[in-house]
């Protein structure tokens, strides 16, 4: 029985066109938005982005139209976007 | 015919098992390993992020970026033990 296992980048590819929640390496930074595309290095193009910065329990949100996110510091990707 | 992974890490044996992933930068997540690639990108399901001090949050189905993965721990082989250093009378540092 050969298990067609789920490839991580295939899952990211399935997410193109829908919401994705990106958790950066820095535990205080997250983004959520619509994934338009990504490359081999998982640099990403996101639209209708909300950038969430958490500092001392305080949560700050910034809205951005279009973002080219450098994949260098991306730790976790969650298809479906951040919870409301 | 693919040659297969030239990796010292055997993730195949952990598929469908609970694993804890530690990331550069301090994030820690636990979930069921559903997929991986040779760059140690991972797919975990039913993932919970441990935010420290007992705080947790549910993330669900995630992709963990291999470039930021520090270690992958199979939870089934893990067991908490008593501190083996407690009760040492003479607490000598290196002599």
UniProtKB/TrEMBL annotation, chain A:
Domain of life: Eukaryota
UniProt keyword Ribonucleoprotein, yes or no: yes
Record's function text: Plays a role in U6 snRNP assembly and function. Binds to the 3' end of U6 snRNA.
Stated name of the protein: U6 snRNA-associated Sm-like protein LSm5
Record key words, sorted: Acetylation, mRNA processing, mRNA splicing, Nucleus, Ribonucleoprotein, RNA-binding, Spliceosome
All copies of domain Sm, residue ranges: 7-83
SMART domains named in the record: Sm
GO CC terms: Lsm1-7-Pat1 complex; spliceosomal complex; U4/U6 x U5 tri-snRNP complex; U6 snRNP
GO biological process assignments: mRNA splicing, via spliceosome
Record-linked PROSITE patterns: SM (PS52002)
UniProt GO MF annotations: RNA binding
Compartments reported by the entry: Nucleus
Family from the record: Belongs to the snRNP Sm proteins family.
UniProtKB/TrEMBL annotation, chain B:
SUPFAM superfamilies: Sm-like ribonucleoproteins (SSF50182)
Keyword annotations: Ribonucleoprotein
One Pfam family of this chain: LSM
Record's GO cellular component terms: catalytic step 2 spliceosome; Lsm1-7-Pat1 complex; spliceosomal tri-snRNP complex; U12-type spliceosomal complex; U2-type prespliceosome; U6 snRNP
Acidic residues: compositionally biased ranges: 76-95
Record-annotated Sm domain positions: 6-78
One MF term in the entry's GO annotations: RNA binding
Keyword Ribonucleoprotein (UniProt): yes
Region (Disordered): 74-95
PANTHER family the UniProt entry points to: SMALL NUCLEAR RIBONUCLEOPROTEIN, U6 SNRNA-ASSOCIATED SM-LIKE PROTEIN LSM7
Protein family membership: Belongs to the snRNP Sm proteins family.
Protein name: Sm domain-containing protein
Organism per entry: Triparma retinervis
């Amino acid at each position: 029985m050969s298990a067609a296992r789920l490839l991580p980048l295939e899952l990211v590819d399935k997410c193109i066109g829908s919401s994705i929640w990106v958790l950066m390496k820095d535990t205080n930074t997250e983004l959520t938005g619509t994934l338009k595309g990504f490359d081999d290095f998982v640099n990403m193009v996101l639209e209708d982005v909300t950038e969430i910065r958490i500092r001392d329990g305080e949560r700050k949100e910034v809205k951005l139209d279009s973002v080219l996110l450098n994949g260098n510091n991306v730790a976790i990707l969650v298809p479906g976007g951040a919870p409301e | 015919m693919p040659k297969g992974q030239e990796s010292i890490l055997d993730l195949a044996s952990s598929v469908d098992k609970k694993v804890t992933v530690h990331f550069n930068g301090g994030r820690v997540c636990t979930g069921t390993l559903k997929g991986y690639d040779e760059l140690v990108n991972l797919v975990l399901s039913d993932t919970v992020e441990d935010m420290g001090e007992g705080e947790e949050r549910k993330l669900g189905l995630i992709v963990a970026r291999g470039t930021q993965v520090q270690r992958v721990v199979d939870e089934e082989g893990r067991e908490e033990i008593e501190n083996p250093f407690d009760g040492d009378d003479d607490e000598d540092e290196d002599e």
